[in-house]
Amino acid sequence: MTGGVLYVVSGPSGAGKSTVIKKALDKVEGFTFSVSYTTREKRPGEIEGEDYFFISEEEFHELKEQGEFLEYAEVHGYYYGTSKSFIKEKLDEGFNIVLDVDVQGSLNIKKEMPYDSVLIFVVPPSYKELQKRLMGRGTENEKDLKKRLEDSKWEIQRMEEFDYLLENNDVPESVNRLISIIIAEQLKISRIKDGLEEKVDKFFKYDFS
Ligand SMILES: Nc1ncnc2c1ncn2[C@@H]1O[C@H](COP(=O)(O)OP(=O)(O)OP(=O)(O)O)[C@@H](O)[C@H]1O
Ligand SMILES: Nc1nc2c(ncn2[C@@H]2O[C@H](COP(=O)(O)O)[C@@H](O)[C@H]2O)c(=O)[nH]1
């Protein structure tokens, strides 16, 4: 796979990852969202192929056998996986990619692509606020809600292994911060793979105008 960078956004369920990612992607060009596979049920308002590719467990295991996943994990009782072919296609088209992936998946991507991935951990200001947001979203039954809150306790402990911490208190501010991280990363000298020599040549060229 060649070209762009994978911006991997993670953090507990209900932290606000999708909210912040969607708004940030509306404001930047040359970036696209990685549409994952999942075995969980579609929520009202979710769109096949935009939010996820919704598949059965059997289909998931078939794709796994075919080596279709860049990473996959069981998250909050369901399977989720990042499509290797989707990522390859978008990178080949010249996009940078934003992913919304759980903690295990993020760390696996880092292992796979250490130089071309940036890991961002999103946290709400408190556990109480996390509970409020998840309950307020109203998408999980009581059992799933409990599992997601329980899982947040170990997820938070892995924060140290990420590159950036994004405390999501206020959505517009978090969107700006995510965009700031992206801009800073894109400006790293080590990421400017093509054209550094040309830039130096151009700098020393006489301007006869
Ligand atoms: N800064 C914020 N302040 C208050 N509410 C927020 C904030 N950010 C997001 N929310 C709300 O919190 C709820 C959870 O947000 P969202 O669905 O984006 O979380 P998520 O991290 O993507 O969760 P999941 O991992 O389950 O997909 C939503 O109802 C969203 O509108
Ligand atoms: N390891 C992976 N985790 C993923 C992927 N796509 C989403 N997720 C994570 O799952 C949970 C729950 O998401 P929800 O949409 O059911 O609320 C969340 O933490 C996502 O980040 C994936 O491809 N791989």
UniProtKB/TrEMBL annotation:
<keyword id="KW-0808">Transferase</keyword>
<comment type="function">
    <text>Essential for recycling GMP and indirectly, cGMP.</text>
</comment>
<protein>
    <recommendedName>
        <fullName>Guanylate kinase</fullName>
        <ecNumber>2.7.4.8</ecNumber>
    </recommendedName>
</protein>
<dbReference type="InterPro" id="IPR008144">
    <property type="entry name" value="Guanylate_kin-like_dom"/>
</dbReference>
<feature type="domain" description="Guanylate kinase-like">
    <location>
        <begin position="4"/>
        <end position="183"/>
    </location>
</feature>
<dbReference type="GO" id="GO:0005524">
    <property type="term" value="F:ATP binding"/>
</dbReference>
<dbReference type="InterPro" id="IPR020590">
    <property type="entry name" value="Guanylate_kinase_CS"/>
</dbReference>
<dbReference type="GO" id="GO:0005829">
    <property type="term" value="C:cytosol"/>
</dbReference>
<dbReference type="InterPro" id="IPR017665">
    <property type="entry name" value="Guanylate_kinase"/>
</dbReference>
<dbReference type="InterPro" id="IPR008145">
    <property type="entry name" value="GK/Ca_channel_bsu"/>
</dbReference>
<feature type="binding site">
    <location>
        <begin position="11"/>
        <end position="18"/>
    </location>
    <ligand>
        <name>ATP</name>
    </ligand>
</feature>
<dbReference type="Pfam" id="PF00625">
    <property type="entry name" value="Guanylate_kin"/>
</dbReference>
<comment type="similarity">
    <text>Belongs to the guanylate kinase family.</text>
</comment>
<dbReference type="InterPro" id="IPR027417">
    <property type="entry name" value="P-loop_NTPase"/>
</dbReference>
<keyword id="KW-0547">Nucleotide-binding</keyword>
<keyword id="KW-0963">Cytoplasm</keyword>
<keyword id="KW-0418">Kinase</keyword>
<dbReference type="GO" id="GO:0004385">
    <property type="term" value="F:GMP kinase activity"/>
</dbReference>
<keyword id="KW-0067">ATP-binding</keyword>
